[in-house]
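Example 3.
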Amino acid sequence: MIKYTSKINKIRTFALSLVFIGIIIMYAGIYFKTNFLIMTIFMMIGFLATLSSAVVYFWIGMMSTKAVQVVCPNCNKITKVLGRADACMACNQPLTLDKNLEGLEFDDQYNTRKGMKKLAKK
Ligand SMILES: [Zn+2]
């Protein structure tokens, strides 16, 4: 069975990796300190990556206020569901808010209108 990760967790992981990428790029810039221009470019890109991670963190904060809080039937912990189908943040149990999707195999396509149409044709 494929493991599903909660969307909020996925985006958090992405934001965290952006911070590390940013730091690595800025660190790499130090090796070019003989060339001021290249060093500045590295520093700028690294700084932008770190900055965009802050934006992503802010965005996920906004998203989680809109997410629906549910109690996971698998681990009984409170988790947040984003969109029509999502996974539990603690145990990755696939969860759905749509009664029509209950008992069906979890699919990321359930979250888009286009995907729903495609699946309805099946
Ligand atoms: Zn759970």
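Strands lie at 68-71, 78-81, 85-87, 94-96. Residues 36-66 form the longest helix (31 residues).
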